[in-house]
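Final report, Chapter 2: Outcomes

The project's central promise was a pipeline that accepts a single protein chain and returns its three-dimensional structure in a standardized token representation, suitable for archiving and comparison. That pipeline is now operational. To close this chapter, we reproduce one record exactly as it appears in the project archive, with the input sequence first and the structure output second.
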Amino acid sequence: MGARLMILRPFGTPKRAVRIDFLMMLRCPFISTGRREALPFMAWLEPFKMLSYRADGGNMMTQTADTFRSGELTTSGFAGWSDDIIEEFRRNEFNGRIGTDLVFENDSVRVWHMTLKPGERMPVHRHVLSYFWTAMASGRFLQRTYDGTTYESDVEAGLTHFYHVGEGEFALHNLENVGATTMIFCAVELKKESANRPLPI
């Protein structure tokens, strides 16, 4: 889960599953597209549409963002990342557990809860399904994404984000509670409505 989604695919190609070697990305700021040239890594990032809903006086307010970037950029270029964090990204590149507890699953959905006490971190995980999450408590979290950037975001209880993840698109990040309160989220992955197959868990 998270307030931003990384969407990657080569320029000039149809949307399709793209296998990116994360280890190669760590070694070099360029990623080969399979063509003769190499594109800068950040050129692979493509905006997506995120819908945000917040309860306000009993009414639902809608806010639309046309970029995957949200929150406050605190560092880039892997600054401040420990060797353990980098190894976690390598190890969990295809980790499909997007919450701390899977509370329900059927052919249509996976329902997750995530509870993080102050200072606790949700391990690196990968999103391939369209999904939404709701913050059940207010707080502040930090997330690291595998392009080497780190963001911090404040959330209010009741805030809900929906993400459409297209064919071949995915997110890979971790989350850390950097606030003073316990953070609680509920996330629902939409299995039938998604263009990609669910990851094993």
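Archive annotation: The CA atoms of residues 68 and 75 lie 16 Å apart.
This record, like all others produced under the grant, will remain available to the consortium after the project formally closes.
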